[in-house]
Amino acid sequence: QQQQQQQAGGLAAAAVAFAAAAAATNGPTTAGAGTVGGGLAGITNAGVGQPGAGNAPVGSKPHQQQQQPTNEAHITPLLGVAPLGTLPLHKDHQLQFKMMEAAYYHLPTPADSERLNIYLPRTPVPTPQHYPQQQLPLYDTVEFYQRLSTETLFFVFYYMEGSKAQYLAAKALKKQSWRFHTKYMMWFQRHEEPKIINDDYEQGTYIYFDYEKWSQRKKEGFTFEYKYLEDKELN
């Protein structure tokens, strides 16, 4: 209590000195005296142990300063994608957008497409379900056609025109050293080494397949002009 009384006395003396300095500057007034008296009473009460609004107890948190609102910049999403802004569309782009919009309103359905037919027989025959309905992949290879007889290959070539089988038969015949003559539409094979060979033709004895008589025949002294040779590579 003695220490608190000493602190109160010091504060009162400081208040009296402050009031005297203010009176010397502005002159004594009734309001000033009342203010000094009120100030002394407030200081005395604060010294006795009643903390005022300005004297916060030790350990209390200071008042947080009011945060000033920061300025925010709002950017539209379009500027994030195209910083330079929008550009006028060309005529081709406008046409593409119109076609896309028209396609959106006319979406295809599964009924618009046909089922892919892996194998379509030339002469369909109704068979039981447990019977193979499709041709085996083994029959669509050159290796299979090379195991067929030469006469069978000629039959496939002449009677299955425009099919994959004709292509495979021709490829198998070429591997057996048969060459197709585009003028006579027949297959020729050397019977022996030609007697004459130059840049334009070769002459000698050949074996050819006569599709009208359906037999192989021999032709001696035949001139095979290279311009009638079917020499396309069959990959």
Feature tags:
7 helices, RNA-mediated gene silencing, alpha+beta, 235 residues, 5-stranded antiparallel beta sheet, rod-shaped, SH3 type barrels, single chain
Structural write-up:
This protein is an alpha+beta fold and about 240 residues long. Strand 1 (about 180) and strand 2 (about 185-190) form a beta hairpin. Among the domains are: about 1-50; about 160-230, CCR4-NOT complex subunit 2/3/5, C-terminal domain (SH3 type barrels). It contains 7 helices and 5 strands. It has helices at about 1-25, 30-50, 75-80, 90-105, 140-145, 150-160, 165-175, and strands spanning about 180, 185-190, 195, 200-210, 215-225. Keywords: Cytoplasm, Developmental protein, Nucleus, Phosphoprotein, Repressor, RNA-mediated gene silencing, Transcription, Transcription regulation, Translation regulation. This is CCR4-NOT transcription complex subunit 3. Belongs to the CNOT2/3/5 family. It is found in: Cytoplasm, P-body; Nucleus.
